[in-house]
Specification:
The protein has about 230 residues and is an alpha/beta fold. The chain has two domains: about 35 residues; about 190 residues, 3-Layer(aba) Sandwich (Aminopeptidase). The chain is built from seven helices and six strands; from the N terminus they run αβαβαββαβαβαα. It has a six-stranded mixed sheet, with helices on both faces. Helix 2 packs across helix 7 and helix 4 crosses helix 7. The longest helix has about 30 residues. It starts with a helix and ends in an 8-residue tail after the last helix. The structure holds zinc ion.
């Protein structure tokens, strides 16, 4: 009798421990995987890559392409955790031009356009860093194409969020850029800051600031596309 009670207690204890351990490991995984899909697709485009590093940080020598990819990856995480389907144009360091392409830039940009066309996204977000001869110029800025009516509103939302979360004071601007015009899907370019401004360069190379920029973009888009007003910042 005593041994049977002991056995039962032992089995219960063991089961309890196994459950606790499983819960600890499985809950975060299932909550990530089990996120309800929103049925919305975002293309995230990390500008430049490979032999095209973009602009270079005046102090650190950092390549724009590296920061673009880091912000793009952070953005991908935020969107996926909230149930969006995310398609990345550039997933790694390399550019998207085909080997042996005579005009690498053109080949790279056409590959990006093909990815966007395949994804039929609700929004294209292209990530870049800015550079200007005058060091005092700083701040994140959103560009849109004035040929795409529905991109203006989302560009405004993202700019407002960047201004309030990063302490910027800039306005959206229309731009004649290939990535904005190569498809008819709503598209914006986010220039996260100026690598020609020392203080901003220092921020832009840090992972926490890259995440902050990504969150500012994500929260504005999610408030607009996610169906609920989660963040009005
Ligand atoms: Zn760029």
């Amino acid at each position: 009798m005593i041994t049977s009670v002991k056995k039962k207690t032992l089995i219960l204890c063991f089961a309890f421990i196994v459950c606790t351990v499983l819960c600890c490991f499985l809950v975060p995984m299932t909550s990530d995987i089990g996120v309800a899909k929103l049925g919305k697709t975002i293309v995230i485009d990390a500008g430049h890559g490979g032999s095209d590093g973009g602009v270079t940080g005046g102090v650190s020598g950092v390549l724009e392409a590296e920061i673009n990819l880091a912000v793009a990856k952070s953005l991908k995480n935020y969107f996926e955790r909230s149930g969006y389907d995310v398609v990345m144009t550039r997933k790694g360091k390399d550019g998207l031009y085909s080997v042996g392409a005579k005009n690498k830039k053109r080949s790279d940009m056409q590959a990006r356009r093909d990815i966007i066309l395949n994804a039929s996204p609700d929004l294209v977000i292209s990530i870049h860093q800015n550079f200007y001869p005058l060091e005092s110029v700083s701040g994140a800025q959103v560009f849109y194409s004035d040929e795409s009516e529905n991109a203006v509103e989302i560009a405004e939302d993202i700019q407002r969020s960047l201004n309030s979360k990063l302490g910027n004071d800039r306005q959206i601007k229309s731009g004649d850029y290939y990535i904005l015009k190569c498809t008819s899907f709503p598209s914006v370019i986010v220039e996260c800051g100026f690598l020609s401004n020392r203080a901003e360069e220092k921020l832009l190379v840090s992972a926490p600031y890259q995440q902050k920029v990504a969150y500012a973009i994500f929260s504005a888009v999610h408030a607009s596309l996610g169906g609920e007003g989660h963040d009005h910042g």
